[in-house]
Amino acid sequence: MPTLDVDALLDDPGTGIIVCCGSGGVGKTTTSAALALRAAERGRHVVVLTIDPARRLAQAMGIERLDNTPRPVPGVASPGSLDAMMLDMKRTFDEVVESQASPEKARQILENPFYVALSSSFAGTQEYMAMEKLGQLHRQAQKDGTYDLIVVDTPPSRSALDFLDAPERLSSFLDGRFIRLLLAPARGPARLMTAGLSVVTNALTKILGAQVLRDMQTFVAAFDTLFGGFRQRAEKTFALLQDERTTFLVVAAPEADALREAAYFVERLTDDDMPLGGLVVNRASPTPMTDLSAEEAVAGADRLVQRDQSSLTAGMLRLHADRMRIVERETHLRSRFAAAHPQVPTAVVPALSTDVHDLEGLRLIGDLLADDVSVRR
Predict the structure, then answer these.
(1) In angstroms, rounded to a whole number, what is the distance separating the alpha carbons of residues 105 and 278?
(2) Is residue 355 part of a domain?
(3) Considering only 16-30, 193-207, 301-315, which range has the smallest mean pLDDT?
(4) 33-47, 189-203, 206-220, 275-289: the lowest-pLDDT one
(5) What is this structure's pTM?
(6) Do residues 247 and 322 both lie within one domain?
(7) In this structure, is residue 93 part of a structural domain?
(8) Where is the ArsA/GET3 Anion-transporting ATPase-like domain (predicted)?
(9) What is the CATH number of the domain that holds 133?
(10) Do the Cβ atoms of 234 and 170 come closer than 8 Å?
């Protein structure tokens, strides 16, 4: 299994965007923050975008709050700089509408109840807006040179693939039959309102209620002129993700489900011609500093118990055996992933005894990510 050279990746001026992706609960936020901090303290000018609703990143970075505006992280050692921000899904959606529509049309859209629901809770909106915010940051960096590295912590979705699928899902929604049906009265003269369409509209009124249906029709009619703009922006961001200056790091835990999801993501990235940097396996069980196997430990414990049923040493041997079995299982899972994807460089980060809650903790994670020797299995 090739080793992921994290410092070479961070130091390379050709690396402009790092996207940390993977299933939920595998440590993407911590990994993103640690990489961003390490890059900044090695001389890069970095912004890290997190979509973590638990707000752990703000706490770890000593910032009272994070929002949709990049804020400097205090305590970062020179020569670089680090800003951090947290995605505000609705505010980002509002910014897109305001930039694409006239003030009057934007007001109609922003005040519409159906838009409020769509921008706040529609499935896939968070992932789409994460891509939108990435595009905004990239355009800002190109314009004024504020940042030379953007680190993205992808949303904690049910599936790691949601981030890549979001633009297509939103386009499918906007192109769907239901939306076309709602647009039919606005797009054509009254004579085109056929009897069949009237029947469907009456049925929808009974199901949704007249006011809800009117709100939806008003929203869709106002939003219709923006559909093309949304699609174009999604296509540009998707192309940005395929650019050679972008690198994806797949983050996983040493568990079967997480590594299976990581394998799906690696295959999807390959299919979409997106640049894969490597795999980060978080919270791996440290190998005990002894050659005593699980079987030997159990056998020794059994012999001690035969002599003394309350033997403390026997209990310790059984605990050692349990720990060795966990290490062996994790090693097997990683080996199986490596056999299926031998070209993917990997970094293994051992589990810490405490949670990461400050910059020192993030620095330690960065050291473990970059120092292959310290995590040797």
Answers:
(1) 45
(2) yes
(3) 193-207
(4) 189-203
(5) 0.83
(6) no
(7) yes
(8) 17-289
(9) 3.40.50.300
(10) yes
Are 351 and 287 contacting, i.e. CB atoms less than 8 angstroms apart? no
Shared domain for 253 and 312, answered yes or no, is no
**Type of residue at 41:** E
What strand order describes the sheet that includes 246-252?
A: 71-72, 81-86, 45-50, 149-153, 17-21, 246-252, 276-284, 346-350
Split into its structural domains, the chain has a count of 2
Tokens 């890549």 appear where? 164
Interval 54-68 mean pLDDT: 77
Is the CB of residue 268 less than 8 Å from the CB of residue 247? no
- Look at residue 58 and tell me whether its pLDDT is greater than 50: yes
Contacts 24+ apart (CB under 8 A), 63-70: 67/91, 68/92, 68/133, 70/137
Taking the C-alpha atoms of residue 84 and residue 103, their distance in angstroms, rounded to an integer, is: 30
Q: Quick check: 317 and 304 in contact, CB under 8 A?
A: yes
Separation between Cα atoms, residue 213 and residue 17, nearest integer Å: 42
Q: How many residues belong to the chain?
A: 377
* Structural domain contains residue 150: yes
